[in-house]
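We modelled the chain as a single entity of 589 amino acids. Its sequence is:
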Amino acid sequence: MATIDDRQTETYRKPLTGADILVESLVRHGVEVIFAYPGGASMPMHQALTHQRDRIRTILPRHEQGGVFAAEGYARVTGKPGVVMATSGPGALNLVTGLADAKLDSLPLVAITGQVPTHVIGTDAFQETPMVEVCRAITKHHYLVQNAKDIARIVKEAFHIASTGRPGPVLIDVPKDIQNTIVQNPDYDVAMDLPGYHLPAAPSAEKIQAVLAAIKSSRKPIIYCGGGVIASNAAEELREFATKAGIPVAMTLQGLGSIPSEHYLSLDMLGMHGTVYANEAINDADLLLALGVRFDDRVTGKLSEFAKHGKIVHVDIDASEINKNKKAFIPVNSDVKSFLQAINPQMQKGEWREWHQQLDAWRAADPMTYDQRDDAIMPQYVIDQLSNIAKGEFIMSTGVGQHQMWAAQWTKFVHPRTWITSGGLGSMGFGLPAAMGAQAARPDALVVDIDGDGSFVMNIQELATLHCENLPVKMIVLNNQHLGMVVQWEDRFHAGNRAHTYLGPIDHPEAVGQGEGDLPEVTYPDFVTVAKGFGIAARQVRKKSEVIDALKEMIAYPGPYVLDILVPYQEHVLPMIPAGGTVRDIIKS
């Protein structure tokens, strides 16, 4: 009887189709996992995947958006391109949000879509959508394959473009007839054809000396680091730089994990929901070492007032980001890792005693706190306790909303690439499938999705994937029966007028109240019942006294687990700098 290897060898003695070449190219680029949902225009590629099932794990998401978010989670954890596949038309269009999300958060993705046969493109054929045109502005690059002989080269280029420079998503749209075309003697090592694609050189010695001189003359320097530190795998170099120099570090949402949260130089997160002391430090600094950041509006607030007292050294691999929002005193178009490797051997500790004393005073005056109530479960308490139990040995994803900001504020990060969140696009429904992708990448890791009831339900169908693929993701739903962040803005800026932000039954408005006695007998939806319907273990928690036990039970459980925790909807994420505001406008209570 023939073995799988024998059958595979026999298959590849036959002439290869475009689909076979594409899948073989994926194997040769080290792809181990692909998230793929089949359809009529992608069937040949799925058939080819079955011939390589011992080399590539194909995970079937229950929605294409779940697949692309999972690919993002995989990419964030591994640093390698996540790969997703969908059919033409509605299948491909369901990837669009994820492609835009990956573009804004600089995550390497390769998205492969089936397309209608070439001879009917442009005729409004069944399930035809011009994906290259749709995705032109939300991908780093894109291809419509027109010749099966080009597939190996295109795949090679796609992985190179996605993972080098500023990472991003690349689309490969493959017509069905191209997938079925026979190709004799394919060349998998064909030269790439990228005349307009250039990567910046390492920073010059003159640039390094200029930065060293700026640091030496500074009295109040600060490091402002973002996702570029993570993307360039420069966390170790950043820690060395900060420690050698003695310069404090404030992180963006995507920069969390660059240095440990409890490092003595860490000011935690800055920006709209960052710490008061990080924002005060940025406001008062005379030198801003901006590493791998894009001066996003959620960080800067009123742009003209942001870091107005300080000179800016901006290090970024994407030249278009430098001087885009803030003028750089010293622009450095370079990979962050290359910059830090060049400057670290020459870096010496500065004399910042007065600056550190000022930072300590700000920390003491406005520490991060939350209400230690016993009559209700505060969402910050849940995350704080989870962080204490897990001690930094976890991977965390989130949905989008209040729970996302609380997770960023109250989780004690130790390692890079353990934090997966949708920052630039703010895509609800991101947390569960992103955790799914992370778990596929790191099967032995504790992977926890911190979610809200609104965000969780948007891709709840992926519970089926967790069950069928044996992915033991843990999910904590901070359930307040509302769209919490929008409610917070309603309370702060619209006199508390509820404009379709309550998620429960209309005959029981705002049911989740101040304390345990105000909680409804039944929440909507009943996540425990829903989870069990998907074959997932679940538990609901209503009392603060049960939280720690429930967290330990969830972590110890060998499979996927949903922990539905009821929290009050009146709680706000604080501190908060209103959109377009400054540190002087910060809301503390």
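As a brief sanity check on the tokenised model: The longest strand covers residues 109-115. The two ends are 73 Å apart (CA to CA).
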